[in-house]
Amino acid sequence: MSSSGPVSPQSPPVDGGRRVVPAGPEGMIDRAVASFLGVAVGDALGATTEFMTPSEIREKHGVHDRITGGGWLRLKPGKVTDDTDMSLCIARAILEKGTFDLRAVAERFAAWLRSSPPDVGATCRKGIRDYMLKGQLVSPPNEWDAGNGALMRMAPAALFSLGDDALFERAVIGQAHLTHNHPLSDAACLCAGRMVHLAIRGEGRSRLRREADALVAAHPDFRFDPYPGEASGYVVHTLQTVFHFFFSTRSFEDCLVGVVNRGGDADTTGAIAGMIAGAYYGVAGIPDRWRKALDPAVRTEVEASGAHLLRISPAFGRPEAS
Ligand SMILES: [Mg+2]
Q1: Residue 80 CB contacts under 8 Å (≥ 6 apart), including other chains
Q2: What are phi and psi of 64, to 5 degrees?
Q3: Which of 256, 247, 253 is nearest to 222 (CA)?
């Protein structure tokens, strides 16, 4: 199904598992809220196990399944990291302008970098600095840019562009190339964004699987079945981990617990899994203890922004103003 076209009420698909799929526009807004909430929940949950190995996690936590903070950043419980921070930069820029304005996104990133956040990926830092120093909005292609930094923050660009595939590509790739310009990062961003769109529209697991399989067919590096077991910041490892646990579990909670217990770049794999699984399972699928454990200011903003971004999307009848 194309993600183009107007919103129309539809019957809840039968998909087994623990998924409830409310139909119509309100159901879609619920899943958009859950997608952005999923980014923050996955980030906060995974920050605890970032850079750990699965066996180190087992030894220290048994199964890590609570938002407790800590980790190498020594976060307070419920705090989030660059994944959510940068997503919020994009959301604020879109909502401020009412459209996707790349310079407005770059300005938000620059203000965020000037605030001296504790965790900035090297490629993100370089891209933002190049904007600050040279006004550069498109990083030149670079073989080292296949990290997951563009993928981890793209949820707002996907939510806002539902219903217009050209706008979707412009927004998702535009924000990506501010810092990451690599074909595998681009392909990962587009695939994940299409999966978010399909899930918001209420499509079932097999339809999302076709999207993941198409990515693997185009770029066999992404093959995730059987799961290779790497969960690093390389966008290929990141998406393999997310896909493996998304497609082999039947709830938001099981997907996220599986992902963050692989360690590695766990806050980012958690954020990306949360984005896709949130859009798929909806707010009711996100454990209340995780939602409540989030920093209240972050929770309030991601929930409001998720709904707002979808309401101004072309799918909700708003033509793109550019
Ligand atoms: Mg992070």
Answers
A1: 40, 43, 44, 47, 294, 295, 298
A2: -80, 110
A3: 247
Under 8 Å CB-to-CB from 210, ≥6 apart: which residues? none
Ligand 1: distance of its center to the CA of 83 in Å? 5
H or E element in which residue 63 lies = none
> What type of residue is 86?
M
User: 236 CA to middle of ligand 1, Å?
Assistant: 17
Q: How far is ligand 1, taken at its centre, from the CA of residue 268, in Å? A: 6
* Spans of all domains in the chain: 26-316
How far is C-alpha 75 from the chain's CA centre? 20
State in Å: Cα 266 to ligand 1 middle: 8
Residue 30 tokens, joined: 């619920």
Domain range 26-316, CATH class:
mainly alpha
This model's pTM is above 0.90: yes
Judging by beta carbons within 10 Å of its beta carbon (0-12, 13-18, 19+), is residue 162 exposed, middle or buried? buried
Tens of pLDDT, residue by residue over 260-295, are 999 999 999 999 999 999 999 999 999 999 999 999
Cα–ligand 1 centroid distance for 47 (angstroms) = 7
CA of 75 to the centre of ligand 1 (A): 11
- Expressed in angstroms and rounded, the spacing between residue 318 Cα and the centre of ligand 1 is 33
Distance of CA 255 to the CA centre of its chain: 14
Q: How far is the CA of 291 from the centre of ligand 1 (A)?
A: 18
pLDDT tens, 187-244?
Answer: 999 999 999 999 999 999 999 999 999 999 999 999 999 999 999 999 999 999 999 9
Distance 274 CA to ligand 1 centre (A): 13
